[in-house]
């Protein structure tokens, strides 16, 4: 199953932060740890493309996460902390550190 489809199913077709409904065009996949650390086809591809490293969010929230939009002080960190908890990112990051450091 494709990663995006897994993320959409996990999210129930709504933004994992705002709960906003949307179709496949209205919601976007946002990486928590960005692909630039390993590239789309780089050595870290499987780790970066793990569904627990991505959240289904609105374009506005995606822009905030990626730094293309600035919110109020601390908003980006609050959104990321919420999403990390919701999608199981903390467990994923422990596994990621074992692979990266091991």
Task: Write up what this structure looks like.
There is one protein chain. The protein has helices at 3-11, 45-48, 59-65, 75-87, 89-101, and strands at 27-31, 54-58. It has 102 residues and is mainly alpha-helical. The chain has one domain: DNA Binding (I), subunit A (Orthogonal Bundle), CATH 1.10.30. The protein is globular.
Order of helices and strands, N to C?
HEHEHHH
What is the share of helical residues?
A: 40-55%
Contiguous low-pLDDT stretches (5 residues minimum) are: none
What is the count of structural domains? 1
Radius of gyration: 13 Å
Keywords:
45% helix; DNA Binding (I), subunit A; single chain; mainly alpha; 102 residues; two-stranded antiparallel ribbon; 10% strand
Briefly summarize what is shown:
The protein has 102 residues and is mostly helical.
Question: What is the secondary structure topology, with strand pairs?
Answer:
Layout: H1 3-11, E1 27-31, H2 45-48, E2 54-58, H3 59-65, H4 75-87, H5 89-101
Antiparallel strand pairs: 1-2
């Amino acid at each position: 199953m494709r990663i995006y489809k897994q993320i959409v199913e996990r999210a129930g077709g709504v933004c994992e932060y705002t709960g906003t409904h949307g179709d496949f065009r209205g919601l976007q996949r946002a990486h928590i740890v960005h692909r630039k650390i390993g590239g789309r086809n780089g050595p870290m591809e499987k780790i970066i493309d793990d569904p627990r490293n991505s959240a289904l969010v609105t374009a506005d929230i995606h822009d905030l996460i990626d730094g293309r939009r600035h919110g109020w002080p601390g908003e980006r960190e609050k959104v990321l902390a919420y999403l990390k908890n919701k999608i199981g990112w903390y467990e994923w990051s422990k596994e990621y550190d074992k692979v990266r450091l091991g």
